Amino acid sequence: MTIAFNQTTVAAEPAGSGVVRQRLLTDERVTGSNVLLERLTLEAGSTIRLEPSTRSLIWFHLLAGEARLDTLYTNQMSDTHSAFLPPGFVGSLSTGAGATLLYAEVLNGGERDPASSDILPRLMVINWTREPVFKSERDARKRVALVTDKTCSTKAIRIEMVIYPPASMSASYHHEGAASFMYVLSGRGTASANEQPFSLQQGDLIYFPDRERHSVKAADDSEMRFLAFYVPGELKTVWADPGKASAWRSTGLDINGYETLDDQKERRNRRAAITFG
Fold first, then answer.
1. 104: number of Cβ within 10 Å
2. Average pLDDT, the chain
3. What is the rounded distance in angstroms from the CA atom of residue 63 to the CA atom of residue 66?
4. Which residues contact 24 (CB under 8 A, 6 or more apart)?
5. Inter-CA distances, 236 with 93, 179, 181, 232, 239, Å
6. Domains and CATH numbers, the chain
7. 126-154, pLDDT tens digit by residue?
8. How far apart are CA 69 and CA 47, in angstroms?
9. Cα gap 18→188, rounded to integer Å
10. Are 255 and 144 in contact (CB under 8 A)?
């Protein structure tokens, strides 16, 4: 059964010195979801410890403000940054002027990435505006990968930034092998789950269980931007009408139309191979 609500309906509670927490996705709200999602507000000058267990994974995205992620080295973060933290990670997040973030923890996520694997989950901090944009071949919808098996070496979760221009929409589909949910960052739209409509606006969270058919549409006069989560990250998408299936291709450019950092590196490597080969 689809569950939808806005963050304003969730009570805020203290979660340490200078930190307030809203528990958006919990086991009580969605039994067996295997993922916790919270909205954290950090006052100016506050710090939180980040220490996932040896079996769990953490991901967070800054919604507003600035922060500093301290590990063996320091990462300065703004509202364009997100971070993926592997099992056993030890570090802290601090802010001088204040920050708000969306915080997810995949419980027992490490079990999908066994220690026997040659490649284990790794710490990743990314600026999504410098990552490659994938564009729909049917319309102007766009998406940017934030967490994938390729980027973070984990099969426990997949996360994407998704942008729907005004009036754009997906065809009806469902996932097999994973539940999915979306958090609306900006704009307005609607979702349909098993023919039941849900209005969407900033701060909404909507959860689709495994195999529940759904579709998403932006309002005619509003671009809608949201984070899409898939737990686990390996799944199959089944379209109600296969002829309307979405197809995505890499533009090789970031959201601002610039060549991405990976493409710049690949071009430099090709140039070096030509020069020294």
1. 25
2. 90
3. 9
4. 7, 10, 37, 38, 39, 183, 205
5. 35, 11, 15, 11, 10
6. 3-127 (2.60.120.10), 134-258 (2.60.120.10)
7. 999 999 999 999 999 999 999 999 999 99
8. 10
9. 31
10. yes
